[in-house]
């Protein structure tokens, strides 16, 4: 089974001995939470009264990534060893990723079961010496330890735990957020390959230490937000902190600059305390949290320069290699802010317009028989604007030729008014006269 094709219940399952629960493992769970990674935790996720063995085994099967924290007494717990054996089986069958961490024990001790691990297994073997079935399990546990300990992982002995945890979280994020492939892009988005490549050139993603701020501009409905979203999905996992504020204008109008700052803090750091802070405190939080981190931030739908000024997000506040994208219809706002470049989104060409329209109007890549002339008329009206193509195509889907003709006549007579009606009201509720 393809590991990426399954609908996972959890992002991460962490197997650990209780001795690490309130130190290393607790910090690891906190870091996963800050990065919006859903981790199964046995003391919080199991329903009371549930048979613990069944719940844990189901959680293992439903997790995309396994983290195993090997500690000095890990092997003394038969329950940890059962978890590990299940993890090893799942990894071999489905390709789920296993990340071993050696907390206060060396990889060699785990791999070859020496030291404390040898003592633990002597006790297991003595305990189950008269039980042939359990002795087979003990051999299985040994094999699982060797299998997992041979994988590439982290030896955190005598190292900064916070630094190592950040590396672990970054690895998990990379696994959970694979790069957007060209094939997956072509299945969902039309005409975005070239603009995406152009935007990546503006950002100079291969350049290491510099900080770049790039603007995306173009008329309403042309696909600016779609372009920013595609890039965010494609590369955000490569950064320590990522944030997509999807409607700066609305948030600013509703809550002022503090609303935008709280949105940024909440997304980037899962910062609950930001709800209580004022503008000055939010400024300090953003500056202090971002200054040594490689960040990727998208500010979508900025329609006034004052929004950027009050947000006070400055390039000197973010770490080396950071990238900031500002999306606006007004190129002047972007130039005034001092962006390093402006990516101007263009209208779709005829081929892409036709392809997008067919997907919406016919749920196909081809024009249905008898609709050729009407399709050309619709495309002439839409004039390469993706939003107009989507709205009109969706509205006309499943309708008869006479209904298409009526709708297109009304668009010709009252283009602005009638398009707004199509955009606002559901096609199921509209009646074409």
Radius of gyration: 27 Å
Number of domains: 3
CATH superfamily of the largest domain: Toll/interleukin-1 receptor homology (TIR) domain
Distance between the termini: 52 Å
Beta fraction: 5-15%
CATH architecture assignment of the largest domain: 3-Layer(aba) Sandwich
| Low-pLDDT sequence parts | 1-5, 180-184, 425-433
> How are the strands ordered across the major sheet?
2-1-3-4-5
The structural class is alpha/beta
CATH class of the largest domain: Alpha Beta
Percent of residues in helices: 40-55%
Sheet with the most strands?
5 strands, parallel
Count of helical stretches? 19
Kindly state the number of beta strands.
Answer: 10
Mean pLDDT: 85
Order of helices and strands: EHEHEHEHHHEHHHEHEHHEHEHEHHHHH
Domain TIR: 8-176
InterPro entries: Apaf_helical, Disease_R_plants, NB-ARC, P-loop_NTPase, TIR_dom, Toll_tir_struct_dom_sf
Pfam family, one: NB-ARC
Protein name: TIR domain-containing protein
Structure description:
- Helix 3 links the parallel strand 3 (63-70) and strand 4.
- It is built from 19 helices and ten strands.
- The chain is 52% helix and 12% strand.
- The chain is globular and about 90 Å long.
- With 433 residues, it is an alpha/beta fold.
- This is TIR domain-containing protein.
Pick out its properties.
433 residues; alpha/beta; Rossmann fold; five-stranded parallel β-sheet; 10 strands; 12% strand; globular; disordered N terminus; disordered C terminus
Give a short synopsis of this structure.
The protein is of the alpha/beta class. It folds into three domains: 174 residues, Toll/interleukin-1 receptor homology (TIR) domain (Rossmann fold, 3-Layer(aba) Sandwich), CATH 3.40.50; 163 residues, P-loop containing nucleotide triphosphate hydrolases (Rossmann fold, 3-Layer(aba) Sandwich); 80 residues.
């Amino acid at each position: 089974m393809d590991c990426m094709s399954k609908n996972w219940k959890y992002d991460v399952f962490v197997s650990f001995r209780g001795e690490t629960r309130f130190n290393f493992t607790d910090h690891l769970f906190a870091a996963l939470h800050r990065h919006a990674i859903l981790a199964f935790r046995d003391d919080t996720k199991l329903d009371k009264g549930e048979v613990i063995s069944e719940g844990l085994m189901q959680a293992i099967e439903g997790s995309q990534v396994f983290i195993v924290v090997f500690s000095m007494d890990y092997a003394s717990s038969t329950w940890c060893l059962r978890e590990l054996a299940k993890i090893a089986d799942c990894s071999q069958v489905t390709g789920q990723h296993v990340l071993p961490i050696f907390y206060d024990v060396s990889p060699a001790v785990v791999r070859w079961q020496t030291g404390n691990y040898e003592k633990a297994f002597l006790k297991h073997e003595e305990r189950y010496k008269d039980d042939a079935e359990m002795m087979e399990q003990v051999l299985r546990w040994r094999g699982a330890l060797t299998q997992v300990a041979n994988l590439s992982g982290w030896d955190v002995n005598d190292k900064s735990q916070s630094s190592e945890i950040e590396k672990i979280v970054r690895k998990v994020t990379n696994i959970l957020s694979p790069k957007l492939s060209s094939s997956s892009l072509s299945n969902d988005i039309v005409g975005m390959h070239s603009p995406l490549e152009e935007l990546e050139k503006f950002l100079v993603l291969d350049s290491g230490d510099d900080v770049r701020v790039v603007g995306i501009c173009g008329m309403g409905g042309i696909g600016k937000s779609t372009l920013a979203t595609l890039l965010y999905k494609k590369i955000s996992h490569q950064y320590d902190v990522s944030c997509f504020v999807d409607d700066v204008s609305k948030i600013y109008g509703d809550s002022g600059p503090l609303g935008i700052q709280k949105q940024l803090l909440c997304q980037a750091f899962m910062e609950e305390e930001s709800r209580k802070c004022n503008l000055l405190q939010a400024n300090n939080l953003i500056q202090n949290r971002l200054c040594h981190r490689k960040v990727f931030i998208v500010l979508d739908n900025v329609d006034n320069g004052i929004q950027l000024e009050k947000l006070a997000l400055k390039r000197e506040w973010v770490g080396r290699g950071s990238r900031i994208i500002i999306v606006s219809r007004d190129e002047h706002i972007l130039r005034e802010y001092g962006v390093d470049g402006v990516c101007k989104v263009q209208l779709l060409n005829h081929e892409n317009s036709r392809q997008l329209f067919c997907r919406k109007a016919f749920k196909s890549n081809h024009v249905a028989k008898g609709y050729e002339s009407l399709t050309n008329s619709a495309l002439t009206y839409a004039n390469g604007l993706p939003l107009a193509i989507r709205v009109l195509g969706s509205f006309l889907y499943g309708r008869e030729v006479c209904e298409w003709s009526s709708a297109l006549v009304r668009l010709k007579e009252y283009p602005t008014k009638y398009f707004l009606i199509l955009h606002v009201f559901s096609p199921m509720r509209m009646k074409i006269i």
